[in-house]
């Protein structure tokens, strides 16, 4: 009886350890089982990539005009479903010369999903991005940064890059000045910053982005797109 209890204890510990490892793997920003994943690049150049997730939405004009004021190109990870609803907004992003990435069609967690589902999520969004006249190579960012086996497997098979981030002010802070301070304290050359201005109705996020642009430029940083950052990585 005692031995049986000890065995079940060991089994429970193993199951917990496996569940914990899977959880860590699902959320890892710079490790996955298959293919390239990039959360930042190692470089001495003071470069940084500003990336926006979700949308496009009616906020697009305000975001583009801010980036234009600072003469900065950013990378927009668009949701297929949103793009379908707002193709004009997406086209504006492409026409302004920003990079567009694939953020899946439905923005569901790409964990424990069938290969057919994953393929559809990526390819339908690729088609929608192509439909707005975007011709550059399309990098991919999983919703919530979550992936386990099927998603990286599919991307690796198709030689696609998975892009995450190393700075995520929105996760930790709500006030613009706190977000700016966090970025200022944690920035290093080759960083990828994630922000979410598309569904913000307060103007708070745009204010944070403007202050981040100003602060990092004052520190001598140049803003680049993800594709430009990957070129630096490969040099
Ligand atoms: Zn998202």
TrEMBL record:
It comes from Lysinibacillus fusiformis. It comes from the Bacteria. One of its GO terms (biological process) is carbohydrate metabolic process. GO terms for molecular function: hydrolase activity, acting on carbon-nitrogen (but not peptide) bonds. InterPro entries: Glyco_hydro/deAcase_b/a-brl, NODB_dom, Polysacc_deacetylase_ArnD. Residues 46-224 form the NodB homology domain. This is Peptidoglycan/xylan/chitin deacetylase, PgdA/CDA1 family. Gene3D superfamilies: Glycoside hydrolase/deacetylase.
